[in-house]
Design brief:
Structural class: mainly alpha
Strand content: under 5%
Mean pLDDT: 81
Strand order of the largest sheet: 1-2-3
Order of helices and strands: HHEHEHEHEHEHHHHHHHHHHHHHHHHHHH
Radius of gyration: 28 Å
Low-confidence stretches: 1-18, 70-76, 130-138, 148-173
Number of helices: 25
Helix content: 55-70%
Length: 487
């Protein structure tokens, strides 16, 4: 049953249909936020009960049908129910009206933690993503499809009808356009005319939004047969050489799903330099289906394979990669440790605070500096206190400067207060805990470079309270024409 087939909606007229659509949209948003709260662990506990109660209320009034879709677009959103369904290979989710609280809670927890199985309960049904086998349609049915070309529209037979004897015929909307584009793709691919083939492939997948809902699966089969793996491999190699076509190739590869994911992962493993394949990284970072292929690469003996996998898994916020990424902080190669810290800094809340405590106290100054830089790029207040503690113990001048700069870029009261204290604490014979003038001036400089509203207020305090050249430097930065909040 789909949302439009539900009896009460069809009997209640336009208003009932509108209410059904609105209810489904509200449920999708609420359950997505609940999943995100579960993925944050204890940090999201405060709102979990409220969101669960809201999801139960919505589902009590109507059945819910959520189609995840077969392609991904846009950036990965941790609060997107459809992204989580796709990650677990669920194409359609059906929730019965009046689904119990325990069932919906189990569903949200399972979608928030891939280690948990999807709940098998009467109130929830799943239709899993099915991948197309190139020759899955029997030859006789293919002949019938060809004979139907003389009709106004092309007729496809559902392959499952062969077993039941039923003949469920589906009319495809823009028939001639689909036929012309599939023929163009085949012809251009045979000639090695990659620009033509890629442009035709993009035009073909862009027909998808115009297809009636009941015909999208058939259309997807048509597209996947028109763009087989060898052609996808050709698109990848062509786009690596032709930068102006990378956006177009990325769109096609993303639409094509797992076949394209496998080829892209293989491609980024081929070279130590990530620059020519950067567009593949950007594409994979939008495809959670790549996670099972990326996690094993964290154990690769090639450092750059580990770096690439860590970068992508951090951008995908993969929960199953969290523990392996933390384990990389003990890796012998500093480049791998740096990649792990960068990936871990992307995780929300306090999921990686313990890892950064380890990174900030690592025996290698370079790794301590890498940890500080990763924190500074993200600016999360969750890392403020570990960074303050590490700064007080740091004895390597370059690493100390990196930690100070990271604190200044964090719009956190604790972080900015620590920087202000450094600027104000004058070193003297009677005050061992103070700082020499060069370090105090450095505190002023990094605040000015940060350019945030919090940094401006910190400079105002230093300008008012610091004596001598430190106070003068702060006042000079505030008066400078180059000072722009948020630059």
């Amino acid at each position: 049953m789909t949302a439009r087939d539900a009896g009460p909606a069809s009997q209640g007229g336009t208003n009932a249909i509108g209410a059904s659509v609105a209810g489904t949209r509200e449920f999708v948003e609420t359950l997505g936020r609940l999943i995100a709260a579960h993925r944050q662990g204890a940090a999201g506990g405060a709102i979990q009960a409220r969101l669960l109660e809201e999801a139960v209320r919505i589902a009590a009034e109507q059945p819910i049908v959520v189609d995840a879709g077969l392609q991904l677009s846009g950036d990965y959103d941790e609060a997107s129910l459809k992204n989580h369904l796709l990650r677990r290979q669920v194409e359609t989710l059906r929730v019965a009206a009046g689904a119990p609280t325990a069932d919906l809670d189990a569903l949200a927890r399972a979608l928030g933690d891939d280690a948990l199985p999807l709940p098998s309960v009467p109130s929830i049904e799943y239709e899993m993503v099915s991948y197309v086998v190139p020759d899955a349609i029997p030859p006789r049915l293919k002949r019938e499809m060809q004979e139907a070309r003389a009709a106004e529209g092309l007729v496809f037979l559902d392959p499952s009808a062969e077993a039941t004897g039923a003949r469920q015929r589906l009319r495809v909307g823009p028939v001639r356009e689909i036929e012309e584009l599939t023929a163009a793709i085949e012809n251009a691919g045979r000639r090695g005319a990659w620009t033509e083939a890629l442009h035709a492939a993009q035009a073909l997948i862009r027909i998808a939004p115009r297809m009636p809902e009941e015909e999208r699966r058939t259309f997807t089969i048509t597209v996947k047969r028109a763009i087989p793996r060898p052609l996808l491999q050709g698109f990848i190699q062509f786009a690596i050489r032709t930068a102006e076509e990378q956006a177009r190739a990325s769109e096609v590869l993303q639409w094509m799903g797992m076949d394209a994911v496998e080829l892209m992962v293989d491609s980024i493993r081929e070279s130590e330099s990530a620059a020519p394949r950067r567009f593949l990284h950007e594409t994979l970072a939008r495809m959670p289906s790549a996670i099972p292929l990326l996690v094993p690469l964290l154990q690769s003996p090639r450092w750059y394979e580990v770096r690439n996998a860590a970068d992508l898994l951090g951008r995908l916020l993969s929960p199953e990669a969290l523990a392996p990424l933390k384990g990389l902080l003990a890796h012998a190669d500093p480049r791998v440790r740096a990649a792990a810290l960068e990936a871990l800094s992307r995780y929300p809340g306090s999921a990686a605070v313990d890892a950064f405590r380890q990174g900030l106290t690592h025996a290698a100054p370079a790794t301590r500096a890498d940890a500080a830089r990763a924190i500074g790029r993200r600016g999360s207040g969750a890392f403020a206190m570990p960074l303050v503690a590490a700064l007080e113990e740091e004895r390597d001048p370059k690493t100390w400067s990196e930690m100070l700069s990271a604190l200044a870029r964090m719009d956190s009261p604790d972080a900015l207060s620590a920087v202000v204290n450094i600027a104000l604490r004058k070193k003297s014979v009677l005050r061992r805990g103070g700082y020499p003038v060069p370090q105090r001036l450095e505190a002023v400089a990094v605040l000015a470079e940060a350019g945030t509203e919090g940094a401006r207020h910190a400079l105002i305090r230093i300008a008012q309270e610091a004596e001598g050249e430190v106070g003068q430097a702060a006042r000079g930065e505030l008066k400078s024409g180059s000072w722009e909040v948020g630059k």
